[in-house]
Amino acid sequence: MLADCRQMKCCERFKPHYVMLRGRCMRLDHEYQNGDGESYSRHFTFKTLDSRIISGKQRQYVVYFGDRWPEVGIFPRVYVTEGDYGVASFKLSRVNMLPRPDEALYGDIDFEEVEEFQCMPNCNRLDLAVDYTTSVIKHRFTFVLDVFYSDRGYEDYEEIAMVSLPGFISQVGGQLGLFLGVSVVSAIYLLQILSLKVHQMFIETTEQKIRAARGPQ
Fold first, then answer.
1. d(CA 196, CA 75)
2. Which structural domain, as residue segments, surrounds residue 178?
3. In total, how many domains does the chain have?
4. Is the same domain home to 143 and 37?
5. What angle do CA 114, 119, 122 make, to 5 degrees?
């Protein structure tokens, strides 16, 4: 395998690793991009491997892309076919959502409908988007793949609450010239006024009943 015109020993750089729903694969770590854009891409050339199928040769590779965690999921992935020149560009996004699991659906984020399984993603996560294109090359028994980040930075998406209950009361109070909330003294004063009103109504009602019982004088 060649990478940036440097011949590498695959057995030293690739280590066995298991991928979910796939099985035993070979993982390459500690390959870093030194600049932005395609001109700083990591270039890999694979030779054809032996296979147990009828032709005896491996005609396609499946390449999985992981993150900083040791687990490797089934997505994102690309298929590198013999005689193809594949170019995979990455874009990383950081998503910070409010802790509302009833609204954090996978389909709402990727614009896809997930009907059978309502998968709940992590509220704080990194999403890796892959744009993969291929072109035909003349060399047989060769697999070529370029991988790069279009920008070594990442896009940051953060969900914030624009209006909360205290904020709403504050805005209404500002429009009406009021203050935010009710203090303890104000609450006691309101309760005192209500109790006096109720006491006065009770006295008036009692006096009316007494007059009605005595009859006309």
1. 71
2. 165-214
3. 2
4. yes
5. 130
